[in-house]
Amino acid sequence: MSEQSDYPEAFLDEMRQELEAQRQELVRSSTVTFHDMRDREREPRDSIDESNDEQGNATELRLKDRERLLLAKVNDALYRMDTGDYGVCEECGVLIGEARLRARPMAELCIDCKEDQEREERRLHASRPGMFSALE
Question: What is the pTM of this model?
Answer without folding.
Answer: 0.72
